[in-house]
Design goal:
Elements (H helix, E strand, L loop, with lengths): L5 E10 L6 E11 L3 E6 L6 H8 L7 E6 L2 E2 L5 H11 E4 L11 H11 L5 H13 L15 H13 L5 E5 L7 H17 L3 E6 L10 E6 L2 E7 L10 E3 L18 E3 L3 E3 L2 E3 L10 H7 L4 H18 L1
Parallel strand pairs: 3-8, 3-9, 6-7, 7-8
Antiparallel strand pairs: 1-2, 1-4, 4-5, 9-10, 11-12, 13-14
Helix pairs in contact: 3-4, 3-5, 4-5, 5-6
């Protein structure tokens, strides 16, 4: 496995003051490695967006340490932190955050300008980033003339144009329909693998599970579980089931309480990953027989009536 590009240890974050003080993140350890798409999953209020902002050097942790590409960020000046963000981190927002008066190419170019890259070379980089996300034909299109999926692809192109080692995405599928949501996640998965980027996606969307190499679960500011879903470069389609009792989780995978994962067996570089097969449903005929008005129930009532009549006789 590649060396981690980000190492965070003992991260805490306290918000508010006095009686309203809340510890949003409670001693989190996390590492990110190149070529891997990691999901950070948890319910609303679990601290996942706060943690993402800390890892992206937007918020400062109350305690703990973060190292990005070998640089300990503790004690860095605001200017140095901004330079670190421009160099190493790309950010994808839930609501796209595109400039409505700029076309797709200009929206990507402005991110390169902020990173100190301009001129013909920057134009070529912006064009290539848009082609990488399948929007080579939309260079001159404005956000008002794009679908939600296309706008999110422009946001992805903007995040990867300067070749950051880390891409952080905050609920990138929340505003998208199913088709576009799958399209964006497939794109992020391919970028992680083919461009050797470390991508961390904050989400509570179960559609994203099929594209992850790793899933980290967070609740109440604590990491409560971690799953390696497949080897790097291999995607294993999965469905998350929250109703207990349908199936047992695979023994090789750590699963948060009350969450069960069903899937298939996959092969990756000679290593075998086994997941639990779905439990087959009972045949329709059996369900009819077990119902209160089913055939067997009717036969039992009919036989019982006959027996009662014989006894009265």
């Amino acid at each position: 496995m590649s060396e981690p590009v980000l190492i965070a240890k003992g991260i805490t974050k306290t918000l508010g003051q006095g009686a309203g003080q809340v510890m949003a993140v409670r001693g989190v350890d996390i590492t990110l490695v190149p070529g891997q798409l990691t999901l950070l999953m948890g319910p609303s209020g679990s601290g996942k967006t706060t943690l993402l902002s800390i890892l992206g050097c937007i918020l400062t942790a109350t305690s703990g340490s973060i190292t990005i590409d070998g640089t300990d960020i503790a004690g860095l000046s605001p200017e140095a932190l901004a330079k670190l963000r421009r160099t190493h981190i790309g950010y994808i927002f839930q609501s796209y955050n595109l400039f409505p008066t700029l076309n797709a190419l200009e929206n990507v170019r402005i991110a390169l300008d902020v990173a100190g890259q301009s001129g013909p070379a920057a134009v070529r980089k912006a064009e290539q980033a848009l082609r990488d996300v399948g929007l080579g034909h939309k260079l001159k299109s404005y956000p008002a003339n794009m679908s939600g999926g296309e706008k999110q692809r422009v946001a992805v192109a903007r995040a990867i144009a300067s070749a950051p080692s880390i891409v952080l995405a905050d609920e990138p599928t929340a505003a998208l329909d199913s088709e576009n949501g799958h399209g964006v996640m497939k794109l992020l998965s391919e970028i992680a693998r083919t461009q050797n980027r470390s991508i961390l996606v904050v989400t509570h969307d179960p559609r994203t599970l099929a594209y992850a190499d790793r899933v980290i679960r967070i609740e109440d500011g604590l990491i409560i579980g971690e799953e390696l879903t497949s080897g790097t470069g291999t995607k294993k389609a999965k469905a998350e089931v929250t109703a207990a009792g349908l199936a047992k989780p695979p023994s090789e995978t750590k699963v948060a309480p009350g969450r069960l994962i069903l899937g298939e067996t996959t092969e990756d570089q000679g290593s075998r990953v086994q997941s639990q097969a779905p439990v087959p449903l009972a045949p329709t005929s059996a369900l009819l027989d077990l119902a209160p008005n089913g055939r067997r129930a009717k036969r039992r009532r009919k036989n019982s009536s006959k027996s009662a009549g014989r006894h009265r006789a």
